[in-house]
Design goal:
The complex is a heterodimer of chains A (433) and B (474). Chain A is an alpha/beta fold. Chain A has helices at residues 11-15, 28-33, 40-51, 57-65, 72-76, 83-99, 104-117, 121-136, 139-145, 154-162, 169-173, 198-202, 204-216, 232-236, 240-255, 267-274, 284-296, 300-306, 325-329, 335-343, 365-368, 370-386, 397-409, 421-428; strands at residues 178-179, 189-193, 219-222, 261-264, 297-299, 317-321, 347-349, 391-394, 417-420. Helices cover 53% and strands 8% of the residues of chain A. The N and C termini of chain A lie far apart (61 Å). Chain A has 4 domains: 11-99, Alpha-helical ferredoxin (Fumarate Reductase Iron-sulfur Protein, Chain B, domain 2); 104-162, no CATH class; 169-304, Rossmann fold (3-Layer(aba) Sandwich), CATH 3.40.50; 308-428, Rossmann fold (3-Layer(aba) Sandwich), CATH 3.40.50. With 474 residues, chain B is an alpha+beta fold. In chain B, 36% of the residues lie in helices and 20% in strands. Chain B folds into 4 domains: 8-97, Uridine Diphospho-n-acetylenolpyruvylglucosamine Reductase, domain 2 (2-Layer Sandwich), CATH 3.30.43; 102-219, Uridine Diphospho-n-acetylenolpyruvylglucosamine Reductase, domain 3 (2-Layer Sandwich); 223-331, Alpha-Beta Plaits (2-Layer Sandwich); 338-412, 2-Layer Sandwich (Alpha-Beta Plaits). In chain B, strands 15-12-14-13-17-18-16 form a 7-stranded antiparallel beta sheet, sandwiched between helices. Chain B has a 5-stranded antiparallel beta sheet with strand order 5-6-10-8-9. Chain B starts with 7 loop residues before the first helix and ends in a 24-residue tail after the last helix. The chains are: A alpha/beta (433), B alpha+beta (474). Chains A and B meet through α3 and α4 of A and α2 and α12 of B.
Amino acid sequence: MSQSHNHKLPYDETVQCVQCGYCLPACPTYQTMERETHSPRGRINLVKMAAEGQLTLDELKGPIDLCLGCRACETACPSGVEYGKILEGARDVLADHQASKTPKPLRFAQKVMFQNVFPDSKKLRLAADAIWMYQKSGLQRMAQKGKLTHILPENLWAFEEVLPEVSSPSERRHRPTAFQPPAGKAARFKVAFFTGCIMDAIFEKVNRLSMELLALAGCEVVVIQEQTCCGALHAHAGRRDETIMLAKQNIQAFEKLDVDFIVNNAGGCGAQLVEYHHLFHGDVEWEVRAKAFVAKTRDITQVLAECQLPLIKPVSAIVTYQRSCHMTNVQKVTKEPVELIRQIPGVTFRDMADPNICCGSAGIYNVVHYEASMDVLDAKMETVKDTQASVIVTTNPGCLLQMKLGVQREGKTGEMRAVHLIELLAEACGLEV
Amino acid sequence: MAYTKVDQGILDRLRQIIPEPKRLLTEKQDLAGYSFDASFGTYWPEVVIQPKSTAEVAAVMKLANAEKIPVYPRGQSTSLSGGPLPVEGGIVLDLSKMNHKLEVVADDLIAIVSPGVLTAAIHEAAEMVGLMYPPDPSSSAVSTIGGNLAENSGGPLGLKYGVTKDYVLGLEVVTPEGEIIRTGGRTVKNVTGYDLTKLLVGSEGTLGVITEATLQLIPKPPAAATMLAIFDDIVTSGEAISKVLTSGILPAKMEIMDQACIVAVESYQPLGLPVDAEAVILIEVDGHPRAVEEEIRQAAEICERIGARKVQIASTAAERANLWKARKMVSPAITRVKPTKISEDATVPRSQIPAMFARLKQIREKYQVNLVVFGHAGDGNLHPNIVADKRDKEEMQRVEKAVEEIFAAAIELGGTLSGEHGIGNMKAPFMEMELGAVGLNMMKRIKDSWDPNHIMNPGKIFPAPGQRLNLTEG
């Protein structure tokens, strides 16, 4: 082995790969970028070569950065390669390596976002207030009309246009902290709701509807203030220490409650939550506490599918479902969302081709690697259009924004809409959406 | 052989042939992705080219031949024998992006395909019109038809339907000198001159680059049924296999798993198979629904009569999938034991299957290796798989010896080095053992006349002087 062997890279995990290539058809970037550099086994090989000192970290960086992290390759792998661990391990090392090279102001901005904004619900609330002001005051209309938004780079204004109408500050501040089943209906489960950071700021409405639906389905719901961001964005950026800190805060907050489940409605957050115990290898006390937390964690569709929802209002539409990669490949929740969609009266469910291929959203990938992400999205939209669906269901905020952007890019605004599954279920239950 | 290195001048000329810059890769992190396949070793190409037309392939070959640069055609690199490895550097020709044509002509029962088309896509297109392309290598969801043709891939259905070469009617090929030729045609019967089609199929990319193929399709059988039989000892299972095949039944598939496989599967994901049994056999028949029902019942009766411990029949698709699960679990189960998998495909005459199993058992004990055996029992094509850890040099040396002895055993029993994976670089040292010096030399003469400058996939099939099996480096 070469002298420059890098012991921090996850070498042992890469050795498990037999390079059979069964992951290739599952990988969105191999399909759009058309080279092994951007295939799962290609990336695993690069990490291995970098660990052996055959490649530099600078040579490794591009292909690792351009991975969506959808982990569809893990589901396809017949040899049980833990790609998620390899990816995150490589990102940790690259983040350290990169820290010394990143210009100071940018490093500071990243630190502020990761340490002070995502974990702080107050700051996120203020940001949401600002967006609400911008949307309601007519500023947004003016800015869009005059293409003022285009002074931003395309990767930012594109998303500005598809942001949902955020809830007003008073709606958000006066949301109850507990929801009860309808009078006369005995509580089936007692659940704590995990609000998430961005979800609760930008998609507060979906959060509120989630709690109302859970109550309607017969759950007693509590929302606690001590919870914080799940840490997924930090983990994906290779910021391990901060990820662990956030995980500890959430575990501590929720273990005090006597509930059956800890319920979330965002595929990406849920995936981070169900892998909390991976963060504490070797720390017996925290590993045990994390496992108890994980055992109670559920995606909302798992709970709703076990209860009875009063789906009283037909939704006459062809509906297709863009799966959240992390819900499919990490949480392994696949049946329940489809079951729920099919239960809605009036709905014709039609699957798209390759439904498990990522939409290209992938956390903040679509902002950081805008063009690569749009290539993935455009390929996805072709399969969506083939279904002739007028409703695209999603189960994760990132996917939701991305699919909204997809609808807009295809010029289908008005005839096609992207929604969170919760919004569609709420509509069918006659809730005010 | 001294080859020319790819320098700036040659790159400039290649860039004139390949107009899109993104289809010509020279960055180190890109070349790394083309330095391996699913077998052994790391060999760096000097440049990777992704051609999209026959004209581009021909122009690259002309240049490479004039300059004496080795060329390595490649599909999606699922090869288990080193087929696409650029062992002498040079140019890797990635044909997986040349996938524009998949045309099924139902009335002629043929499909015309580009080399980069996935095997599974051909299966699907044929089935859409009630037809079938039978060759079914287990990698068919990933492998390209070009790779299948070069390696003459098989699969479980080989027992009843034959292998890739049995379904090729014609080829378009770019010769090592950059000329474009067509072999065969669109008809099943064709005796015009030498059968170059069959010569090229299975030539492992050493005689030319296949740029289009005309494949034969057959009507798809409407029904199938599967059965599983558990045997206390492997010799009895061998008798059952022979008895079924001589009772007027030709199953579509006949697969076997040995005790080591059963133990691995049960400790990975228990399916309720008895770990003290020596063999599990899976039999699938296809055809007319009534024939299928009758044949699977007969096969089950034969197994019971010969002495199977237990027999299970499945007729619905879901039940069938459940029985096949045991076989599908083998690969994931054994890689959990140790990470490095050496997958061989030594093949023996059917009647020698029990003898081969006995030899493999001795080899396992003699070299203390984790050897499991599964495979296509009906046609004698076994897959002895050794799982090891390539970081353990001492273990890998024992594996080398075990592999050498597996080859020797297969040949002694009247069989062959390779049933379906190909020779590549790893098995080249054993060619003379099977073919004899003159037999191998006749092949060499064909190679010399097709490829006078030895630029097509050099380092494969024919051993270098003194070359031996090496699993311990890289």
